[in-house]
Design goal:
Distance between the termini: 30 Å
Number of helices: 1
Radius of gyration: 15 Å
Largest sheet: 2 strands, antiparallel
Shape: elongated
Strand content: 25-35%
Helix content: under 10%
Order of helices and strands: HEE
Length: about 80
């Protein structure tokens, strides 16, 4: 839904809209990306917080926020 990582939604690569992931199964996302901005460089880090919608047919959609903490882009 939102966060400093892209691309997680169509049309680009890295789309994680799993429709056939079995119950109890997992998948490791190996392609998260973040473009370091001038603001990131000035601060020395960026905040790796992302928001995800989890949905399934017949179920209420759940929104989950993942706080990935501060990611250094230079020594602080």
């Amino acid at each position: 839904m939102s966060g400093p990582f892209a691309p997680f939604v169509p049309p680009g690569a890295g789309n994680y809209r799993f429709k056939n992931l079995a119950a109890g199964a997992d998948y490791t996302c190996a392609t998260p990306r973040h473009t370091v901005t001038q603001a990131d460089l000035d601060a020395g880090f960026f905040q790796a917080t992302s928001t995800w919608d989890i949905s399934a047919a017949g179920r209420t959609t759940k929104t989950v926020t993942i706080d990935g903490g501060e990611i250094d882009v230079r020594a602080r």
